Amino acid sequence: MRTFGEAPPEETGLFARLKKGLAKSNAGLAGSITGLFTKKRLTPEIIAGLEEALIRADMGVSEAHRLAGLVAKNRYDSEISDAEVRAILAHEIAVTLAPLQKPLAIDAGRKPFVVLVAGVNGTGKTTTIGKLARRLAGEGKKVVLAAGDTFRAAAIEQLGVWAGRAGAEFVHGKAGGDAAGLAFEALEKAQTAGADILLIDTAGRLSNKADLMAELEKIARVLKKRDPSAPHAVLLVLDATTGQNALNQVEAFKAKVPLSGLIMTKLDGTAKGGILVALAARFGLPVHFIGVGEGEADLQPFDAQTFAQALIGTA
């Protein structure tokens, strides 16, 4: 088994891109911290203000309370600066997120390695799959893309463009077709072609739509008829701008399919970057990639320490 997703050596500007992408989250949180801590003596009122700021960053009530408590520990009536508070928070958040820092593991013994990608409407799921295909193809892997989002003709066309960019084989049908049948056909073709990886897009579905969630279950079930071990990875793409609703989405999807990891997109468009902290505390699912912009290079492997520093603004 091997992993992919480690940033290439030439990508030395990762922190800069993350810091720029997380500017909205950082501005709100850092501004609050600066306003609260200016070499003042620490009081319960200041800690309560910090807790509120962490909640506004969507870290969740329990995590906000825990982190604020760690800042306060043995420090009441002592002077503490905003820089010191940021250093403490960045360290503790990095510790919390470290277990999530796991690259997507590709088992070379399972060929093709089947990756099923799900998510609600508007998360950037199809674009994310295309970017993953480019990354994999750049590592010399033979990739097949399957347009399992049969509800949207635009999604089929969009994925076809990405397949062309990646030099990947593209399996698709007509809009409105049977998604499970398309997935089965794609796996059959990927096996015949000797592909290394099959990436399957699925229709964006609201987590409360029983019929669409049942279809996702069916896709996973039908794949097993061709390969009993498939899908080998099930990734959920989350939109950071949804904030705490991301927790509900994970809960709903993992009740239907065996989620193996997460991809968080649109972190550049929200002040709710702390949602990753809440997700870590609640589920502990690996976060393979994060998106902090529109460009291909803005889909980056998740690094806990770098993320925590960029979120809090310690550098």
List the keywords.
single chain; 315 residues; eight-stranded mixed sheet; Rossmann fold
Task: Describe this protein's structure.
It contains twelve helices and twelve strands. It has helices at 14-21, 23-36, 44-56, 61-72, 82-97, 125-138, 153-166, 179-193, 210-226, 245-254, 275-282, 304-312; strands at 2-4, 38-41, 79-81, 104-106, 113-118, 143-148, 169-171, 197-202, 233-239, 261-265, 287-291, 299-301. The strands form three sheets. The chain has an eight-stranded mixed β-sheet with strand order 7-6-8-5-9-10-11-12, sandwiched between helices. Strand 9 (233-239), helix 10 and strand 10 (261-265) form a beta-alpha-beta unit. The longest helix is centred in the last third of the chain and has 17 residues, at 210-226.
Largest sheet: 8 strands, mixed
| Structural class by sheet pairing and helices | alpha/beta
The first-to-last residue Cα distance is 36 Å
- Helicity, in percent? 40-55%
CATH fold call of the domain at 100-312: Rossmann fold
Strand content: 15-25%
Strand order of the largest sheet: 7-6-8-5-9-10-11-12
By CATH's scheme, which homologous superfamily of the domain at 100-312 applies?
P-loop containing nucleotide triphosphate hydrolases
What is the name of the CATH architecture of the domain at 100-312?
3-Layer(aba) Sandwich
The tally of beta strands, per DSSP, is 12
CATH class of the domain at 100-312: Alpha Beta
Assign an overall shape. Answer: elongated
What is the C-alpha radius of gyration, as a whole number of Å?
21 Å
N to C succession of SSEs: EHHEHHEHEEHEHEHEHEHEHEEH
List low-confidence stretches.
Answer: 4-12
How large is the count of helical segments?
A: 12
Q: Please, what is the average pLDDT? A: 87
